[in-house]
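Module 6 notes. Inverse folding takes a fixed backbone as the condition and produces residue identities as the prediction. Think of it as a translation problem where the source language is geometry and the target language is the twenty amino acids. Below is one complete input and output pair. Work through it position by position during the lab.
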């Protein structure tokens, strides 16, 4: 029987099964499929249904969507999103609640960026960082021009204001800044 082109699905399943330290028989039992059928999938002789892939993914504790892409059931364009989801779901250092929270945050960022991209004419540039001028001078820190103990008279914006006289009172006609 000739091997089907199922996007490396069989090799990927075998790799995932081995990394999970499961025998073919153990995985078949956990997924609720027959041992010979799973063997044929791994060798590329059978193309499983989405339902079977979902059962196998659950038994391996990996994303079913990743298997769908490899089997050609889902479009390749969705692969990056699906791989991100798969990595989050496969991370053994996270508990299930943490995984779900991360996935919700990830999805909300994707939706937010899609809306922003649409509003910006498809540039994909995010404008959520506030005023870029504030980023150069965080929390009102002195500019590099005024470093070294200067009273700020040398700063770039001092030319916009009249200089205060030596007595500390504003010049005549200047608004009181207090």
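Target side of the pair, the amino acids:
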């Amino acid at each position: 029987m000739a091997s089907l082109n199922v996007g490396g699905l069989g090799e990927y399943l075998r790799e995932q099964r081995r990394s999970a330290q499961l025998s073919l028989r153990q995985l078949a039992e956990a997924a609720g499929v027959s041992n010979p059928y799973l063997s044929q999938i791994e060798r590329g002789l059978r193309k499983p249904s989405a339902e079977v892939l979902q059962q196998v993914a659950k038994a391996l504790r990996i994303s079913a969507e990743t298997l769908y892409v490899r089997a050609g059931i889902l479009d390749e364009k969705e692969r990056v999103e699906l791989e991100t989801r798969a990595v989050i779901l496969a991370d053994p250092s996270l508990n299930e609640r943490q995984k779900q929270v991360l996935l919700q945050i990830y999805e909300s960022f994707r939706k937010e960026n899609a809306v922003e991209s649409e509003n910006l004419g498809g540039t994909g540039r995010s404008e959520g960082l506030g005023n870029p001028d504030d980023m150069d001078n965080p929390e009102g820190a002195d500019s590099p021009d005024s470093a070294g103990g200067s009273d700020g008279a040398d700063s770039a914006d001092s030319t916009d204001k009249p200089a205060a006289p030596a007595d500390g009172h504003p010049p005549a006609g200047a608004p009181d800044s207090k």
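Reference fact for the lab report: Residues 96-119 form the longest helix (24 residues).
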